[in-house]
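Agenda item 2: S-adenosylmethionine complex prediction
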Amino acid sequence: MLKMYIQRGECLCGTFLLSFSLLLSSYILINTVFRMHSWHHSLKSTMTQTINIQNILANFVFEEDGKRSRTLIEEIEIAGQTIPKFINEFWTSRQRQAHSLHEVSYRACFKPQLPRFFIERLTHEGDVVYDPFSGRGTTIIEAALLGRNIIANDVNPLSALLSRPRLYAPTTDEVAERLEKIPLTSNEQSEIDLSMFFHQRTLNEIIALRSYLSYDRQKTNPDPKDASHTKYAPHEIDSWIQMVATNRLTGHSNGFFSVYTLPPNQATSAVAQKKINAKRNQQPEYRNVRTIILKKTKQLLKDLDIFQMETLRTISKHSQFLTNDARDTKKIDTDSVQLTVTSPPFLNVVQYAQDNWLRCWFNGIDAEEVGKSITMSKTIEQWCGVMRDVFRELFRITKKDGWVAFEVGEVRNGKVKLDEYVVHLGLDAGFSCEGIMINQQQFTKTANIWGVSNNSKGTNSNRIVIFRK
Ligand SMILES: C[S@@+](CC[C@H](N)C(=O)[O-])C[C@H]1O[C@@H](n2cnc3c(N)ncnc32)[C@H](O)[C@@H]1O
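Presented output:
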């Protein structure tokens, strides 16, 4: 009897111990997960708080082909503050270092290495990266490839048309299949004379594609922000085809629909093209529109693997593509952006509407109308007037501890120091200025090592003013 009680007691005791240890281990597990979660969060916020961009830039060593260059630091007084200038080569200029998905031509675009430098150092996966002057979408495509959420804005509708389809990159087979279904024969005539660019048969194919895409747009009327579907709808592949065709209109090789045109290819006017044809004694030859679109598709998709495709698709679901003036972007939430990397229109160096007349024609966009909303400042005062409001808006949408990297190239051979004007604008908006970063692509290595400033070569340098909220 006693033995039985002892056995039962042992049994009860065992059950109790087992339950207790189960409870204890669940508690430890939950506690550990909870701690890890909050640890991760606090680490993330500590990391955000402790990022010291000045140290990063000051200690940066560029290495390529066995050569090394250190950062040269200069200082400048602006608005009663000492602003450091960090001069070095901060990324390689080699094109093959950039993802093939970027290879879409656009005037005054920057290299993907530029936004990557900041995205990698100043953001985490899931943070929002923004470009108010998005152009071909270099910043947002690079950010999406790195798993960051994105907001793109550009007053020129061509910008979204050239960037958004790359978040929905289809496979080459899907594009080939789709292209076979699009009828490329047409008797329709172009409203304008384009015979100086295209062989008549090529032009017929372009016009057929243009009509098809425009009809397709009206028919399916896809909402550009509706990215809820997981499978590609046909109109997504059509948007890809439209983006590639827009890119292939004019150029200097047989990879384009046109006869040889002079760079900047997309800007060549009909009159200028006639002169080029006469000078080179050339006539447009037939180019197969389908073959060219497919070839360029393959090139663009060359580096894109299945994981990146998935990442882009996921990011696209929360992406925003706006066509607002950068001064007024109400659709962007206050305190929502972790990093802005951008390059504004400079003084009236580039006339975007004129530049893109043929691309606009192909896409049924009124180039003149777009031209009216594009910032064209003749004087530095006018330019600063516009950018002052842009900075005010950037301050509103930037998160606390968030960043802005504002790139201005060398304007008028370096005579106009736009970067220094930009420092004032950012400070006035409420940001703190972390410094001016000068990326000298052709910086003389010896001069750099010996601490001799050599800022005379301006053409290949980027001047980026870095702000923090
Ligand atoms: C220097 S480009 C940007 C290029 C871009 N970083 C890239 O890599 O493609 C400047 C862009 O600003 C756009 N833009 C000009 N004025 C604007 C405005 N007021 N608001 C928004 N976008 C504007 C132009 O359409 C052009 O695409």
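Discussion summary: Residues 106, 108-110, 133, 135-136, 138, 154-156, 159, 325-326, 343, 345, 352, 374-375 surround S-adenosylmethionine (CB under 6 Å).
Owner for follow-up: CH.
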